Amino acid sequence: MNLPKGKTAVVTGASAGIGEAIARKLVSADIRVLLVARREERLKALCAEIGKNASCMTLDMAETGAAQALLEAATKEFGTVDILVNNAGILRTSHVDEFDLDELDPMIAINYAAVVRTSILFARRMKTNSGGQIINLSSIGAGITAAGTGIYGGLKAALERFTEVLRIELAGSGVRVGLIAPGTTSTEIFEDMKAKGQPGWDEFIPAMEPEEIARAVLFMCEQSGNANAARIHIYATSEGF
C-alpha cells in the first residue's frame, strides 16, 4: 500500500533513536517531514543528511507554549499537516527509596503533558481539514508493574487512556488516532540508567532496532478507507512480559 503524494508529517524527538528512524522512514515514502528536537546541531546535521524532504525545528516540547509554536511553524512550513507523530520522551527509573523527585515534573511535562497539548491542537486543525493522522508513542511499560517503573509506566498508561479517548472523540471526523507501544528497543533512552550504574533494559535481551518501530508507524499511516490501525504493540522476540 502506498501513501498519496504530497503528504506532510511532524515528528517530535526526531534527533535520534526511534524518532530519527521514523523521520527517515517517512521521507523514504516521499513524505515531507518536519523533524523536531532540542539538540539543534544534531538535528540540523540529520536534516542535511536526509535531504530535501526534511526540515527541522529546534524546540523543547516540555515547554508550555511549545505545542502552539509547533503547530504554527508546521502550518507555515506545509500549509496542511497530514501526520503528527508524538515520539519525544524520557525514561527515569528508580526504586521509591532512590527516585529523584526533581525528575518528576520533567517526566510529566515531556511524556504526558506535551503529547496531550500537541495532540489536541493538531487534532482541532486536522478536524477542520477533514483528515489527518495522529500517532502517539507509548511503551509496553504501560502494562508492566515492576519495581522502579511506576512513574514511567504510570505516565504511559495515562497517555494510552488519553489517546484512546481522543480516537473516540474524533471518530467520523476523518482524523485517525493510533497508539504504538514498543518493547525493548536499543536507543539512547537507556543512557541515564547506564550513567547511574544501572544496566539498561536493552542489555538483558536482544533488543529491537528503531527501524522496526518505524515500519509500524508507516504501516499505521498507510491505512485508508474505513480502516484505522488504532493500537500496535511490538515486542522483541525474547520478551516474555
Q: How do the helices and strands line up, and which of them pair or pack?
A:
Layout: E1 8-12, H1 17-28, E2 32-37, H2 40-50, E3 54-58, H3 66-78, E4 83-86, H4 104-128, E5 132-137, H5 150-169, E6 175-182, H6 191-195, H7 210-221, E7 231-234
Helix pairs in contact: 1-7, 3-4, 4-5
Description:
With 241 residues, this protein is of the alpha/beta class. The longest helix is centred in the middle third of the chain and has 25 residues, at 104-128. Helix content is 41%, strand content 16%. A seven-stranded parallel β-sheet has the order 3-2-1-4-5-6-7, with helices on both faces. The mean pLDDT is 91. It contains seven helices and seven strands; from the N terminus they run E-H-E-H-E-H-E-H-E-H-E-H-H-E. The chain is globular, with a radius of gyration of 17 Å. Helix 3 packs parallel to helix 4. The protein has one domain: Rossmann fold (3-Layer(aba) Sandwich).
- As a whole number of angstroms, the C-alpha radius of gyration is 17 Å
Cα(first) to Cα(last) distance is: 32 Å
Number of helices: 7
The biggest beta sheet reads: 7 strands, parallel
Please give the oligomerization state of what you see. single chain
- Number of domain units: 1
CATH level-four homologous superfamily name: NAD(P)-binding Rossmann-like Domain
CATH class term: Alpha Beta
Total strand segments: 7
- N-to-C SSE series? EHEHEHEHEHEHHE
Beta-strand content: 15-25%
Helix content: 40-55%
**Could you please say which CATH topology applies here?**
Rossmann fold
* Tertiary shape: globular
> Helix/strand/pairing class, anyone?
alpha/beta
